Amino acid sequence: MIQYPLTFLLAVLVSAYGTPIARSAALRFGIVDAPDGKLKEQQRPIPYLGGLAIYAAVLVALAVTFEFDREVLGILLAGAIVIVVGLLDDLRAMRPAVKLAGQCLAAIVLLKSGIMIELVYLPLWMALPLSFLWILVITNAFNIIDVMDGLAAGVAAIAALALFVVALMNGRPMIATMALALAGALAGFLFYNFEPATIYMGDTGSLFVGLLLGSLAMIGSYTRVNQIGFLAPLIILGVPIFDLLFVMHVRRMRGQPVFLGSKDHFALRLRRWAFSKRRTVLLSYVVCVILGACGIGLTYASDLIGTYLLLVLALGLLVCAHLLQRIDVGL
């Protein structure tokens, strides 16, 4: 089917063309991430606004190759809301509480468009709050993991491709097309974002990417073979979810505010320990590929094999968290 390769190629081309334009605009208006000698250790200010190119690439690719039904429009509208929220935050014009309120509004738009967790044994009164919470968690997980050149964009692209495979195997063309459009947009953006990055996606991009992946993962089909397949999205998006939970845990143990910036992220700890930036990012890609394959496999495994797989992954998560916590980050 030509629709899928066309969607991916269009998204790559629009993103690769639009990212330098976004970079020039960010430099012109001073929308940059300036080094501070603490968390931001880059040698020079790096422009934001890469998220605008990513959003435009997704929008153009979908406009050419796919029809905008209610679900697609709902996701794109919610995405536009977080784009505005992220842009204002990149301009340093938004307080955290207002930023969260904007994300809540986007989540409500998704729910009103019928984008929510769909499980036969999950009643509506539980599905609604769980869907709302899931969107906020995944949106902020990608916002938090965006701490190193190419990390968030590459991890998101791999996760999008995993969701594309699941959707393709289950006959869900809307999810498959949107996931592939996002993967293509991120691939085009990575030409400029991989080390050494010349542009960042900023909150504009990380919030949009998180919301789109959270939405697509939430409405996929995972339980045709077994009843534990519904956990597949947690595995496919395991890298950003792990970083979010790990950072929250470490900061709470230290008695610091959960959303305070620090060097507690797994990528920064690996960088501090023994890896270069590039190796840290590439290792994260490998882990994301493995988790994506495990998530896909979980949807088609027997209940017994699926249970064993979940136990192994849970044990690996605990071991990694313990080892990472022992790394001195020099606080």
Automatic annotation (TrEMBL):
It is found in: Cell membrane. GO terms for molecular function: metal ion binding; phosphotransferase activity, for other substituted phosphate groups. GO terms for biological process: cell wall macromolecule biosynthetic process; cell wall organization; lipopolysaccharide biosynthetic process. Signal peptide: none annotated. Its cofactor is Mg(2+). The keyword GTP-binding does not apply. It holds the Pfam family Glycos_transf_4. Keywords: Cell membrane, Magnesium, Membrane, Metal-binding, Transferase, Transmembrane, Transmembrane helix. It is a multi-pass membrane protein. InterPro entries: Glycosyl_transferase_4. The chain crosses the membrane at residues 6-26, 46-66, 72-88, 100-117, 123-144, 151-169, 175-192, 204-222, 228-247, 281-301, 307-324. Mg(2+) binds at residues 143, 203. This is Glycosyl transferase. It comes from candidate division TA06 bacterium DG_24.
